[in-house]
Amino acid sequence: MKICINEQSRDVPEGATVADIVETLAINPKFVAVEVNLELIPRDEHATHKLSEGDQLEVVTLVGGG
Fold first, then answer.
1. Is the pTM higher than 0.85?
2. Mean pLDDT over all residues of the chain?
3. What Gene3D superfamilies does the annotation carry (predicted)?
């Protein structure tokens, strides 16, 4: 199915979850925020939040610094 991640179209398997996308992008799940269709998905729901055709995701990594 097709979804959009950070304004880029991607094909992902049916039944993919937010956690699957984070893993595919090789991002540490402790340092990421994911929004699906303008709704922030809590980290403890990443593994259970299934994506649907046409979903729009924004994936933001958190970086420390000073």
1. yes
2. 96
3. 3.10.20.30
